Every structure is written in structure tokens, then in C-alpha cells.
Amino acid sequence: MTAREVAVVGAGIVGAATARELAVRGVDVVLIDAGEVSGGTTGLGEGNVLCSDKDAGPELELALRGLELYDELEQRLGDEARIRRKGALVVHPDGATWAAEPARLERLRAAGVRSELVDDVPAIEPELTGELHGASYFEADLQCAPRAIARALAREAAESGAQVRTGTRVLAAGPAGVELAGGERIPAAAVVIAAGPWSAALARSAGIPLPLEPRKGQLLRLRGSDPRIRIGVRGSDPRIGVRGSDPLIRHKVVDGSYLGSVMSGDAGLQVTSVVETTWEGDVLVGSSRERRGFDTTVDDAVSDAMVARAARLFPRLAALPRVAAWAGLRPWLPDHLPAIGPSAAVEGVWLATGHEGAGVALGPVTGRLIAQLYCGEPPLADPAPFDPDRFGR
What we know:
- The chain is an alpha+beta fold.
- It has two domains: about 5-45 and about 145-210 and about 335-390, FAD/NAD(P)-binding domain (3-Layer(bba) Sandwich); about 90-140 and about 215-330, D-Amino Acid Oxidase, subunit A, domain 2 (D-Amino Acid Oxidase, Chain A, domain 2), CATH 3.30.9.10.
- It is built from nine helices and 20 strands.
- The strands form four sheets. Strands 1, 2, 8, 9, 10, 11, 19 and 20 form an eight-stranded mixed sheet that branches.
- Strand 10 and strand 11 (about 185-195) form a beta hairpin.
- Helix 1 runs parallel beside helix 9 (about 360-375) and helix 2 packs across helix 9.
- The longest helix has 20 residues, at about 60-75.
- It starts with a strand and ends in an 18-residue tail after the last helix.
């Protein structure tokens, strides 16, 4: 097997972005995945690129740079990326989460996030009639088609000279390359482990301790209204969202309790509310979180709980037909920060994983950061907080 300069393991949005960013810089890359491009975690989520669910800190700084990259993606990919700049509305049925929101918004604004408190929620989200203590609006948050974007990034990588190998399972990774099922080896000067929830075993095979676990999340799709809402026009007030055919839900709507569940270290089931429309006009309802290994069984009781919570905000949702339910696995790390960059302990092994539920938002920017570090360019963000060796100290 001909040696490659870099082998990237995992062809979700993080791995595909990494391969693309390296390839356009002239690096000889092979992108490898056990399944198809974007056949795992990337293609199972809502496709959100958010700052609204974060607080000040290194992840937010990376997310802000990530939002900027989505401007580039939209210019390069156009309608293929299906980017909808709908904004996000964080609502607070619970007084405790609302009490903390003004201070959080101050921290976010200081970091450069465009956000504001909302006085009249029904004016911008008419179907949201549940009782609230308050709400905040985040103008720049968007929704996209992550599977299509990952596949476009892999295509761009191939067009720049990368080899893309799907249906190829990697058993072990190390400083000399990767070992494939069947005994084949791909020698490489560097290996980037970007295998999402499956990264921990590969990191261990390379000698890097990584306390990464799969964190299960379940989603439900309800039959929505007129599918033409996806081509509606935006009103003069950006908070109004997409108009033209009166979508049932105009923004990404997040229950304030979701913020706590994201940062929780509890392995048990947590259910809160995130609600929005799909490109076709159906309604996506989440969210659940639990750590129970690689189990992706759909639990009807969890679906029932998610719909019940969402209907407290949008009563009409309780009557909508259920179209589909599925579960995916987020790559969770205990300090809630991804692992990005080269390992100092094992030369030649790099990590790009652990983004949990923010992989779509942080995937393209992670790929760029990895490529900048590899090629000796000034990094667009400080990589120190994402040091992949931090768990072995």
C-alpha cells in the first residue's frame, strides 16, 4: 500500500472537513470510514449551528468562528447546503433558568454573540402560547443539511486529490498509520482520529487515554404544515423568521432547561424541549440525553415525554401525526469540550472528536483548525483548551 501523508479516520462532517482542508493545502490524504460518508452521527441530527445553547468560553469562541465558515460554505455550495438563517429563540417556562438568562446574555454579547431579550414572544412565534417567564433571541443561529454538507466536503477533498475509502473498517490507529479489517495496513505519517462516538477505542489503540462515551439522543418528526414554508420570504423584522406561508414554527425554539442538560454529567435519561421545522415543513421534536453505550433503540416512552414537553410550549404539536422516530449517538467528553489537535504523548496521532451535540456547528471549523496546525499556519482559535492529552495528566 502506498504511504499517505495523513490518514483521516471517520467521514462525518468533522473528518470530511479535515480531509478537505488538508487536501486543498496540498496534503496527501486518505479519508476512511466503515460505512458511507456521513452515515453515522452527522446525518442523524437536526443540522443546527448554534451559539444560543452555549456560555462564554473556548467552545463559544470556536462556535463563532464556525458560524463564519458557514458563510463560506453557503457561497461554495449554495442550495446544496440548505442553510436557513432562521435564528434561535430560547424560552424559559422555568423561573430558575430565566433568572440566570440576563447575565448569560451579557457574557455572550461581550464575546460577540448577537442576542437580545424578547418582550412579546407571540409576535414572533404565534403558536408558542405556553406560559413563559421570558425569552431571548439569537439572530445568527442557523439550520442546515449536515449530511449533504459532509458529502460535499468529501467530494471537494477528492477533487483536490484525496482518496476516499468507504466501507473500510479501521481496527487500530498509530503513529505509523492504520490497520484495517482483513489485515491491510495504510502507512501514514500522521493519523487524525475523527470517528465521533467510536473514537475512544481507536485512541486507546494509539496509546491515548480518552474518556469518550456515546451519549444517546432521540428525535421525533411530526407531520407539519405546507411544505412551501421552506421557500417563504423573510419579514422586515429578522426575529419574525421565514414568512410567506405561515409556518407552524418559525425559529429554532429551545427550552432554557436544555442548556443545563447539555452541560450535565449525569448518565441517566434527561428530557427537555427543542422544536423546529425541517426543510420540507415537518416538525422536529427533541431532545433526550443518556449514556447507555451504543444502544440506539427507539424508546416510545421517551418520544411521548418529548412531545408532552414540547406541547407545553406549542399545544398544537400534541395532535400532529408522528412520521418517524430515531436515535443517534453524540461523542461525549466529561469536560464538555472537544479534543482537537496533535497528541504530544504519541507523535503523529491527532484527535478531532468529542463535539457531543455541536459537531455540525464545529465540524468545518475543527477541520480548518487541524489543517492550520498541521501546516504551520496561524490558528483561527487557541487550540490549548482542546488539548487531546489533557485527560492523561
